[in-house]
Amino acid sequence: KLILSNGRGNTPLVVPWSWEAPVFVELGWTGTAYELRAVYSQPAAEPVAEGSVAGVDLGEVHLAVVHDGEQTMIYNGRELRAKRQYQNKLKARLAAKQSRMRKGSRRWRKLQRSRQKQLRKLDCQIWDILHKQTTALVSTLYERSVQTVVIGDVRDIRKRVDYGPAANQRIHQMVTGKVRRLITYKAEQLGMRVVLQDETYTSQECPRCGHRHKPRGRVYVCSTCGFCFHRDGVGAVNIRRKYLGLGPVVGAMASPAGVR
Question: Where are the beta strands (DSSP E) in the chain?
Fold first, then answer.
């Protein structure tokens, strides 16, 4: 007999069964009657080709750092940071001016229209930067025949860190969610697969010896084996290694290339 659950609190469905136990059972409606479909073997998972996977580390200083097993590419985010900083200063300056006016007055409404116009222009400029950078990233991976894009999962970073008011503001204004969505839909349009990978300690673990060390600045130098590489590049390398289950990096790595 097959005993199929009907949900908590309900009597299970018992089906007479004179064959071996299946690995998967589905009950479906054919249009006239119910049909029980049984599966006895799962198809073997296709092996992941090491050269067809790229790791992506999203960050606040650099928009994204990509490692595809041979080359590391840094997509610069400093122009985006400059726009964000100007946006914050503009909001603060205009809010201070508005606070000295009577709400709803002619001067207050005029300043409000000017504020909305300036902020709308900045939003368009930020979206333009994001689209151009993510298009360049996905196009490069497509040209290098990458089939799987592994993105470090930083969705809960705001809950895990507390570095003080200034750093917290930059972290809370990170556009990693927008970047992840843009990369995902653009990559999938070109036939690539996008997956999320836990990125815990990926920027701190040495790819060569596995020793964990929290670096200062943008250069990672392992205090145990002396491995030296770009800090965000180490994160991208480890995200890719973590997904593929690879061992330590052997030999020297090529210097990362910057994309403005």
Answer: 2-4, 13-15, 24-29, 34-39, 53-58, 62-67, 72-76, 148-153, 193-198, 219-221, 228-230, 257-259
| Sequence letter at residue 67 | H
**Amino acid sitting at position 9:** G
Cβ burial, residue 117 (10 Å; 0-12/13-18/19+): exposed
3 state DSSP class of 205: strand
Residue 26: beta bridge partners? 37
Cα–Cα distance, 184 to 194 (Å, whole number): 6
Q: Nearest-5° angle of CA 71, CA 54, CA 134?
A: 90
- What is the dihedral angle through the alpha carbons of 7, 11, 14, 20, rounded to the nearest 10 degrees? 40
Q: What is the CA radius of gyration of the chain?
A: 26
* Local structure of residue 211 (DSSP, 8 states): -
Write the single-letter amino acid at 230: H
Residue type, 154: V
pTM for this model (two decimals): 0.72
Q: What is the pLDDT of residues 231-254, one digit of tens each?
A: 899 999 999 998 988 877 766 667
